[in-house]
Amino acid sequence: MTTKMRKESLDAYERIRYSLPRRERQVYEAFAKIGPATNRQISIETDLEINQVTGRTNQLVKDGIIYGKDKVLDLISNVPATRWDVVPVNGQLKIL
After folding, report:
1. pLDDT tens digits for 39-56?
2. Domain containing 31 — which CATH number?
3. Separation CA 7–CA 88 (nearest Å)
4. pTM (two decimals)
């Protein structure tokens, strides 16, 4: 599944990417390739174990860099999973 990132997300990506530790940067850079993604999708994209990805996404959320966009069904585990996305440069998320 390939998704183009929004312009705001790409701007945020460029602003933050070099300030992150190596593994967090690796997880963060996966968003540039595939857009909003679950931990499992990031794990597949980066060849990192799921437990390594989960810790990195949790830290990125804590730092306000990514956020839980929505829930999707993980087709492998058949369990709902959070799909993450990059917080826009202006820090404002759309409210529907």
Report:
1. 999 999 999 999 999 999
2. 1.10.10.10
3. 9
4. 0.76
